[in-house]
Amino acid sequence: MAQQDTDQQHAGVLPVDDEGYVIDTEDCEKREAEWRERGTSRPITVVGNPVLHKECKDVTDFGEEFQQLVADMFASQRTAEGVGLAANQIGVDLKVFVYDCPDDEGLRHVGVVCNPQLVELPAEKRRLDDSSEGCLSVPTAYAPLPRPDYAEVTGQDEKGNPIRVRGTGYFARCLQHETDHLYGYLYIDRLSKRERKAALKQMAENEPRYPVVAND
C-alpha cells in the first residue's frame, strides 16, 4: 500500500492502494453511519432550481461548518435512497459530492470528493455502457445514457488532502454523474431533446418518494 507522506498529515483519510487510488470499500457501514448520524436530512432541489444549472464554487474551507455539510449530505442521501449526492442537490453552491454506491460486482464504495475533475480517458478505456440513469433532482424519471464504464476522478477528501478515485460499471457512472452536477449539468442535459422531454414528463406524472424543494 502506497504511503502518502506522514500518518499525521493524513489522519482520518482513506488508505490508498499501490497505484495511489483511495481504498473506499473498507468499513463502509461504519463510515457511512458515522457521517449520517451526525447529519440532518435536507430536502432535494429539483431541475429548474438555479443552483443546479451553474458551476459550483470550489471548496476552500474544510472546517467545522463544511464537515457538518458533508454529514447532512450523507443523511440526505440515505433519506432519498440515493447512491450519490452533490452539494447543489441540497441547495449548497460548493463542489463536493458524497457517494455510497455499489459497482457491477456488488462491491460497496463510500466516500467524499471535493473539487472533482474527471480524468480524460485514452481511447482504449472508453467502452460505453448505455444503461439507464436516474437522478434525485429529476425524481421518478429514467433514461438510457451512454457513459464510459470506467472513470477516474481527482480531487480532495473532506480534509482537503489530494485523492484519486476510480470505479467501474455503475460506480463509474456515479462518479461521472456527480461530477457533472458540480459543473451545472444534469444527466438529462446529455439526452436528445425528445428524450429530455420524455424524462421531464415522467417526473411530472409521478410523486417523489422523498422531500423536495418546490421551484417558484
Automatic annotation (TrEMBL):
Similarity comment text for this entry: Belongs to the polypeptide deformylase family.
EC number(s) per entry: 3.5.1.88
Top-level taxon in the UniProt lineage: Bacteria
Protein name: Peptide deformylase
Listed CDD domains: Pep_deformylase
Metal-binding recorded as keyword: yes
Catalytic activity from the UniProt record: N-terminal N-formyl-L-methionyl-[peptide] + H2O = N-terminal L-methionyl-[peptide] + formate
Co-factor remark: Binds 1 Fe(2+) ion.
Alphabetically ordered keywords of this record: Hydrolase, Iron, Metal-binding, Protein biosynthesis
Organism: Streptomyces tunisiensis
Role summary: Removes the formyl group from the N-terminal Met of newly synthesized proteins. Requires at least a dipeptide for an efficient rate of reaction. N-terminal L-methionine is a prerequisite for activity but the enzyme has broad specificity at other positions.
